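Model it.
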Amino acid sequence: MQTEKGINKPGSAKNQPVKKKKQGKSLFGRVNAWLHLWLGLISGAVVFIVSVTGCIYAFQREITDITQPYQFTQVQDKPYLPPSQLRTIAAKHAFGPEGETAVNKLTGVAYGPGKSAVINYGNRKDGFKAVYLNPYTGEVRGEKDWNKDFFRFILNGHFYLWLPNEIGHPVVASAILIFVILLISGLVMWWPKNLKKANADKSFKIKWGASFKRVNYDLHNVLGFYVMLLALIIALTGLVWGFEWFAKGSYFVTSGGKSRPPVREKVFSDSTATAMYAAPEDELFARMDKQYAGQYAYLSVSFPSAKTDPVVVNFNPEDKTYYRRLFRYFDRNTLKEIPSNAMYSKAYEKGGWQTKYTA
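Modeled.
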C-alpha cells in the first residue's frame, strides 16, 4: 500500500518530538563565573597567607604567656615603684651609665596586676625594644626586641606580606576587597535555580559516593556556603583596617549617619605654663592608680619628650581586650586634663555598651 505524497509514515523521523536545546548560561552568569574564577586566582595566595598568619596570631597571648615568663611578677603586698624610679633603672639597662639623652628616649611605663612593668624604647629606624622590670623592686626580668619577636614577624605578614608598609598594606587590602567580591559571586553561583529536593540536595549536601571530581566540587560548593557568612564578616572587618574610605563609610552606615571620629588626636601641653611637678608621670600615676584601684588590668603613663607633649594615660579594664582601651591626656606642667574627641578618648560604656567599669 502506497502512502500519499506528503504524508509521513508513523515512526518516521519527522514524527518524533523535537527536543529543545539546552539554554546556556546568561551573560550575567557567564561574567559572574569568569569573575569568580579569575578573582579567586588573583587573591587566593594573599588571602591564604593572611588567613594562616591570622590563625597563628590568634594564639599569641597563650603562647607568649608560656614562652616568655619574664612578663609576670608575683603580686606583693606593697606599692609599685613610681614611674620615674623604674625609668632610671630601665635607662641604665638600655643605654648604659649615661642613661637617657636627647637621642635615646624611653616612651613610658605600663603596670598591671601580676605583671612585670614594661618600658619601651627605640625608634622606627633601629626598631623598638622593651625592658621588663619587677614593679616592686626594679629588678630587670627580661628584654624583648620587637623586630626579632616571632609574633611581630607573623603580624607583619598578616598586615603587609612582609613587604614595606606602603606596598604591602594596599596589596593586602585590595586582595581582601577582591575576596569579598569573590564571596558574593560564589553565592550567586551556588544559589539553587529552584527549591526542588534534587537541587536542594546539590546545594546543601555533599554526595560522598560520587566521583572524586564531584566530591571535590561539593566540598567547595557546599562548605563554601556554610562558611560564607563568617568569612564575609571577617573580610569586612579586615577592610576597616585596610581602607580609610571603608572605615568611614561603615561607621557612617552603622551609626545612622554620623562621621567617624579620629582614632587618635594630637593634643598639646601649654609650653608657657610653669612646671608644677618635678616628675609629672609619678604624680599622675599615683592619681590614676587610686582612681582605677582594683579595676585595671593595664595602666600606662607616657614620658613626654617635647615641651608640648602631654602625659598620656592608657587604661584597660580587661587584659585580653583591645576595644575597651581608654586614652586620657594631661598637661605635663599642670596635669590638667586635656579634652579630646578621639575615638579611644571616650569611655567604652559611654559608646552605648554596658560595662561595670567607669572612667
